User: Fold this.
Amino acid sequence: MNKNVGIATGIGIAVIIGVIIFQINETMWEQVSVEEYYEKGGRVAGVVYPDNPQILGPLQINKDKYLLGENVYVILKNLRPGDQGSILFITPGNIIYNEWGFNGNERESQKKYFKPQLLKGKNLCEKEDLVGEWTVVFKGYEMSKLHFEMLADTLPNHEWQYETCNVAYEIDITAP
Assistant:
């Protein structure tokens, strides 16, 4: 009787381990190339990289790697009254792409997203101007930096956005 119980227990443990391994394998995130995306007609699990938050004090960016055409999501939270300044987003060619101001007296947190793109006004007219390691710093505190990488691959079906250089318009909605 003990021999049968031992065999049944061993088989049960083997089945449970097999199911766990199968579940882990099926839920693992797999990034595929843009070329494979087109080869399989868009029937792939994921082309973009998964979230991997990059944090610098109250500043958080959702990933460390992006494809051209993806939005960069930025959160600024836990601001205290008196915290004010601006955040600089700097391209690999050391050009200030965007400057985002904040004021803790007005808001405790802010959210923003942007899509790095070709901009004639900033002399960013080649796709290669955007590719590489970007730097994010608090203006006046350049010693502390946050980095993310913009890869040379373009998000599928967004290639047209990186063919010509556009003029960037800034609109002040408070004084149209």
About this structure: Strands lie at 54-56, 59-61, 65-68, 72-76, 84-90, 96-103, 110-114, 132-138, 141-154. Residues 48-162 form a domain with the Immunoglobulin-like fold (CATH 2.60.40.1930). The first strand starts at residue 54 and ends at 56.
